[in-house]
Design a protein that fits this description.
The protein is an all-alpha fold.
């Protein structure tokens, strides 16, 4: 029985390796998208799918936009010029990452500012609590005055 299991395991492993090796040339034949077009499309929003970037969207509109990007790059425009063209034509919402200038600059600083305010407030609360309620030494407390100890001793005496 053990020989059968070992033989079966070897056969499955060999089959797995063969499938992986045969599949590699098939995967390699898929044409790679134009890298520059892909990088620019990754920075633009799909006009029809909310929150999806242009590079990953399969719609016809996105295919047309990607063709437009490729055409502009083929004409010699830089990536920034292509992005500027789409932003001028469709507004700043076409960009996946809004510009860090003008009106949006405070929006980029807001999370950092909020985190700093939170940390300062938490520090102030902890400092105030430490000043008003200093820690007492637990070992110095008198066990005879502790109501829990008294109740426990009383229960032990009753239950014997």
């Amino acid at each position: 029985m053990l020989r059968f299991a070992v033989h079966t395991l070897r056969l499955i492993s060999l089959l797995f390796v063969v499938v992986c090796l045969v599949g590699r040339p098939i995967i390699a034949q898929v044409p790679a998208p134009d890298e520059a077009t892909y990088r620019i499309a990754k920075q633009l929003n799909c006009p029809t799918c909310a929150g999806r970037n242009l590079a990953d969207c399969p719609t016809e509109t996105c295919a047309q936009w990607k063709a437009e990007i490729k055409a502009q790059l083929d004409m010699g425009k830089s990536a920034q010029e292509v992005l500027d063209y789409f932003q001028a034509r469709f507004g700043p919402t076409v960009l996946q990452e809004p510009p860090k200038t003008g009106v949006t600059a405070p929006l980029w600083a807001a999370p950092v500012g909020a985190a700093l305010v939170f940390l300062l407030a938490a520090g102030a609360v902890m400092l105030r609590a430490a000043r008003h309620n200093p820690l007492t030494d637990v070992a110095a407390a008198d066990p005879a005055e502790d109501p829990f100890v008294s109740a426990l001793e009383e229960e032990v005496r009753r239950n014997g």
